[in-house]
């Protein structure tokens, strides 16, 4: 459930970003479709070619079944991917960590 909440947050950002920014060039050169021609919001679903949606489904499937193929044995939301080597991104104090995780759940 935590993962789905995070995906929903990214989807919300993805819904707002095209209002202010669009890539240059072609979304589908063979169809002559430019990124600027794709409308914002739900109307974009009808403009993107089926091959484009197939690529997204394949990417999401790869992400879901290959990258996160491990069983989660620890705390909920901890997929064992670490902090990507960034310093200052982990909370060492157990009480502060528990408080931070509870704050994320309450968000």
* Largest sheet composition: 2 strands, antiparallel
The strand order across the widest sheet is 1-2
The coarse overall form would be elongated
Q: C-alpha Rg, in Å?
A: 19 Å
* N-to-C SSE string, H for helix and E for strand: HEEHHH
Count the beta strands. 2
Report how far apart the termini are.
13 Å
Subcellular location: Plastid, Chloroplast
Protein name: Chlorophyll a-b binding protein, chloroplastic
Organism: Zooxanthella nutricula
Keywords: Chloroplast, Plastid
Give a verbal description of the structure:
This protein has helices spanning 2-16, 44-47, 50-67, 94-106; strands spanning 26-28, 33-34. The protein is elongated and about 55 Å long. The two termini are 13 Å apart. A two-stranded antiparallel ribbon has the order 1-2. With 107 residues, it is mainly alpha-helical. β1 and β2 (33-34) form a beta hairpin. The chain has one domain (2-81). It contains 4 helices and 2 strands, in the order αββααα. One of its GO terms (cellular component) is chloroplast.
